[in-house]
Amino acid sequence: MPIHDLGYRPWQGRLVPQIGRFWVIAQTGMRLAWRNAWLRRALFLSWLPVVYIATLLLVYEQIQAHTSMRDTLVPWIRDIPITGDRHQVWACLLWVFFRYPQGILMLLVVGQVAPALVAQDVRSKAFLLYFARPLGRFEYVLGKMSVVWAYLLLITAAPGLALYVLGVLLSPDWHVVCSTWDLPLRILGASAVLMVPTAALALAISSLTSETRYATFGWFAIWAVGWATYAMLRANLPNSADAHRWDLVSLYHTLGAVEYWVFGLKYELVEVLPLPARVGILPSPAQVQIWPAAIELTAVTLVSLAILFRRVSSPMRV
Questions:
Q1: Which domain does 196 fall in, by range?
Q2: Residue 281 pLDDT > 60
């Protein structure tokens, strides 16, 4: 039986525009990551601090409306800074929300999602399949980073915006929107500060090895070593207010310094927030090294992206 119509034929299926090809990689990565039970637990825990911070916002607004209630509340409520600047108090609470519970959960979430994204492709030689199709390095990297960004949005911007909405709804005065209208934009800015360098760093580490466990160890080791170094250097300082000079040795504290600037805080060494472990004192803007911290995060992002693109393109080099 003869065979007819040999040769190229037009594709009859649905074509994905080039600008959206990264989303195919992103969707696959999200589905695979969602199978991790520990990741789902971490995402659930990320929303629990919203209840606590929302309670503090409610108490603050009630105290502002009824000053006589201050002495009747439990003692730990007295540690909330009662000032005339509502914007600063809300920004302070949101900064602590990003700085402490969400900062720790960021390490856990990225440690569960990112290490396998590129390392498994290196081990399985999946690059040969990816780049045999009309897919470039940029689409590949953007797709992988979108996986990390999607889960980070679920623990940063999403609960942060929900917290702001709860604060507005629980406030007895609707004029709070006029004085805090820019905080949603600052929440998105703080989320970007947290997401971009951490995703780039995690994927760069993942691209350097074909073993997921090595990438996971490298991710946590970088943060643990920086934190331990910061703690040792701070222990030698008699004045805790001078500890912020060592923020740059720890990525965790560097992120906190930039987020401090994003939220526009202006407190001068005020004891705030009755957290169980006591947050301590907020630094003044002069003590927070904004520009060195921003430069460090930019350098980490650019170097990580350079390593990632080089490792991704290595199978195509002869």
A1: 18-313
A2: no
